[in-house]
Write a structure and sequence with these properties.
36% helix; signal; alpha+beta; disordered C terminus; 6 helices; six-stranded antiparallel beta sheet
């Protein structure tokens, strides 16, 4: 197919899809209806809800914040999570987590963690997120997407050289409640090179 035909076909598809979107938007705007917009849900089966997750994390932090030796099995029992649900961290991620250098960790020769220390460390992590998005149409040419929910990341570093079973070295968590509101108009679609329906 020639580039001219592709261009004509693309314009036709834009116009057809845009017409459909406007019809739906017009109907929703007329009755003031919010339309589900999906969201990012990760590992929502791990916990009953956000409150359950936070309660378990608070308990884990209170236990690991003492001089008590806490095994990996005990950690999993507190969280109520099976080991197979966790993602294994590589050495670079472990070093980045412990030194606060993130994904672009320092080269090992400049690190405060020696190769011998790293050999004894094992890392497990998981993300727990549920962002619910909803579209609201103000009128046939303008809409907004509102997202509410939460997004947490947990990293747990264990020492495997201190006994028969790995014990907790460090527990790090980040994230929290999420909220965002993004607005678009039909003109954003017309002017965009890569056309898509009201996704944000």
């Amino acid at each position: 197919m020639s580039s001219l035909n592709v261009s004509v076909m693309t314009k036709f598809l834009k116009a057809a899809t845009l017409g459909t979107a406007l019809a739906v938007a017009g109907g929703c705007a007329a009755v003031g209806v919010g339309v589900p917009g999906g969201g990012d849900s990760v590992n929502t089966d791990l916990f009953k809800d956000e409150k359950d997750f936070l309660t378990r994390m608070d308990k884990l932090k209170s236990v690991t914040g003492t001089d008590k030796v806490v095994t990996k099995t005990e950690v999993l029992n507190i969280l109520g999570v099976k080991a197979k649900k966790l993602r294994n961290m590589d050495r670079s991620e472990i070093r980045g987590a412990l030194e606060g250098t993130g994904p672009n960790a320092m080269p090992l020769v400049k690190s405060t963690l020696t190769a011998d220390v790293l050999k004894c460390l094992q890392g497990s992590s998981f993300q727990y997120a549920d962002d619910n998005g909803k579209y609201a149409f103000n009128n046939p040419i303008r809409w907004q997407k509102e997202t509410k929910g939460f997004n947490y990341n947990v990293q747990m570093i264990f020492n495997t050289c201190s006994g028969k079973e790995p014990v907790v070295d460090t527990v790090l968590d980040s994230g929290g409640p999420t909220y965002s509101k993004r607005k678009k108009t039909v003109f954003d679609l017309i002017n965009s090179d890569s056309f898509s329906l009201p996704g944000m």
